[in-house]
Design a protein that fits this description.
CATH class: Mainly Beta
Number of strands: 11
Order of helices and strands: HHEHHEEEEEEEHEEE
Shape: globular
Largest sheet: 10 strands, antiparallel, barrel
CATH architecture: Beta Barrel
Strand content: over 45%
Helix content: 10-25%
CATH superfamily: Calycin beta-barrel core domain
Radius of gyration: 16 Å
Number of helices: 5
Strand order of the largest sheet: 1-2-3-4-5-6-7-9-10-11
Number of domains: 1
Distance between the termini: 11 Å
Length: about 200
């Protein structure tokens, strides 16, 4: 069986380095789990910090910022779908762990929509370019009654962008940001390095 993201990367899958193939080792319609551990530098625009109460309430992103924040990410498969589930656990010093969970769904090669528990979603294209996986913004949506309704809010929150790059046989660095809206500085960003610590295959 192909992995979930083997279908996403399509003809580019074979070119991915081992660390990124391990990162994306989950199979669809299974109970697979891949775990990566590392640290992240989390930065928030001052306006974003003022909305920390709303971020905490919705469970989207993180309500805090910090440097070298210990972070564990579990990538889960679901036995009844091809969803790729992100479960990010941020351990900010002196605070209870912050869990940010989202589900990625792909309906065709190189296109993925990441849904938050609020129903909001980020559409992105996935390509392997030279030595990096590049995620480029393709729009915001909200899921209502089984439909993706476009949300033209780029002027306010900016455009999403992310990349992942292998740094070893089982490690990679990554960066994500929302920038380019009304504000000069990115609204929100995080970046750091991770190591794949577990690949658990369960049908």
């Amino acid at each position: 069986m192909k992995t979930t993201f083997e279908a996403v990367f399509d003809e580019q899958w074979a070119a991915l380095p081992p660390a990124l193939k391990a990162h994306y080792a989950n199979r669809p319609f299974s109970r697979d789990r891949v775990t990566v551990e590392g640290t992240l530098d989390v930065e928030m625009h001052p306006w974003m910090r003022k909305l920390s109460w709303l971020i905490k309430l919705t469970g989207m992103l993180t309500p805090y910022e910090g440097t070298a924040v210990p972070t564990t990410v579990h990538f889960h498969s679901e036995p009844d779908s091809n969803a790729f589930v992100f479960e990010r656990i941020f351990n900010f010093p002196g605070r209870a762990p912050v869990v940010f969970r989202s589900r990625m769904i792909s309906k065709r090669a190189h296109r993925v929509t990441e849904y938050m528990k609020t129903g909001a979603g980020w559409k992105a294209t996935y390509y392997f370019d030279k030595d990096k996986v590049i995620l480029r913004h393709a729009g915001y949506v909200v899921r209502l009654l089984g439909l993706d309704i476009p949300m033209p809010i780029e002027w306010l929150v900016g455009y999403g962008y992310a990349y992942e790059q292998a740094t070893g046989e089982d490690s990679f660095k990554m960066h994500m940001q929302m920038s380019g809206g009304l504000l000069e500085k990115p609204l929100y960003s995080y970046g750091g390095e991770f190591r794949v610590t577990e690949i658990l295959r369960r049908d």
